[in-house]
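Researcher: I'd like a structural prediction for the single chain below. Treat it as a standalone chain; there are no partners to consider.
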Amino acid sequence: MENTPQQQLRVCVVLIGYNDVTRVADAVRSALAQGPAVSEVIAVDDGSTDGSVELLRRLAADDQRLRVVARAVNSGGCGTPRNDGIDRCSAPYLMFLDSDDVLPPGAVSALLTAATEHRAEVASGLCLRRELPSGRDVPWQPELYGTPAIVERPSEQLRLVYDTLCVNKLYRTDFLRRHAIRFADGPVVYEDFAFTTRVLAAAPRIALIDQPVYVWHVRRRAARLSLSLDRSGIDNWRARLDAHRQAVEILHAAGEKELMGAACTKFLEHCLRMYLRELGAHGPEYQRAWWDLTRAYLQTFDTADLERATDPARIVGQVLLASPEPVDLYRLRQLAARPARLPPPHARAADSTPVWSEALPEVTLEHLLVRPMRLLPLAVDAELRPRARTSVLTLTLHELYGRVAAAAPTTVDVELQARDGGHPGLRRTAAWSAGTDPDPVWTAEVLLDLGALPSGVWDLRLRVRFADGTVRETTARAVPGPGLLRRRVLPDRRHGTVLVQPYATHSGSLSVRVAAGMRGVVGVLRSRSRRLLGNG
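Model: Treating it as a single chain, here is the predicted structure.
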């Protein structure tokens, strides 16, 4: 049977790896399994010493589409080996794959069909972040990929600047070469930022598809974290700032003012809030360095950049700019949570205008007086007291400049949602009772049979309901009182024993870890022992 024009247009998959002998074969096979849409897989090994090259060559002996490029010296980053692959690509289209990730079945064909049918220089699809070892899939930037679309030029879809990944996209090879779009060479972190920004600055026609085309394996407990996931030192944040600064400069040079503004908003909404949530895991020296670096960078932003951001990100930016010293880190981390929370104290200026604090009255919060209740950063505290048979969850809803009392909270829907898969475990509804402590508060008490939950991590989700029918979905901050956040082994009529551990996430939200039965309890204790020994 004669090939159609689309079948004659083939794709080169550029695969890069370094000392990843246990996983690279899966990545290679996932690319070759894409079928005739893939004409070549160029595997660039970046100076591995663990036998990766030998394994790749054995795989190449079984499929002539696989070509192995062995670099003699490790480059220190992902950019140089990808550039090697671009230089050797002979196919009309190319895409990228990392050695510890995989392409789902049909990914290349779907992207190629979209690119050819719509004459697009770039086709892009959904990336799934697969948390390992749990296997939970988290869609990356799902807002972009809910519906197939054709974007005539990037400035028509500003959300494109949020998707900084290079791996979930198919590119016309001659488009990249015509515009000299390459990666930064050497030990560069977040090399995707500048590359994808150069792609956008070249104003390609982009086809967006609504199906998964890349599976990004996220191994947070790996002995060797990826460059982007290793955020233990301040150099990672410095590298992220440099990458974002370079992206803004690229867009400025291209005259893409709207995309440049969107990139600044993305920094505030995504990067700033993500790292701020994790700030509590670092010591004072890191926190001070982070504050100084972030404040200096925000001083380069226009006022309009801050005004475009949503309330939580804008307030965080204003506090950073207003104070040369780190202040209110706990409250800022709460505000950076998703959804945002603004715990007390809730200060007012002399004229009764809501402000961030008495020390920073220039950071005004008067917009909170008119924002819809469903968008307000309500603060709910949670105390979980595990007990045999029935555990007690106590919730406290705080006032927010009179808005809560005016809306009149009625009930709260409580749900424990599995971290792995998101399916609900326990659901309860309770009524709010008004009180003072010393400011107006509302409390609710919920009884939970935690032994009924399967082993795993369970996140607390709330829906606060008001008299006017408004619903605010939120989380609750874990109250760090004496004895509240500690592990307990409780008797259970179904499993004999059940281990329950309430704990605070990076953003301070309450979650609970449950291990049912003696085997589950022993497994958790062994895991903790291994972590302690590793840290020692």
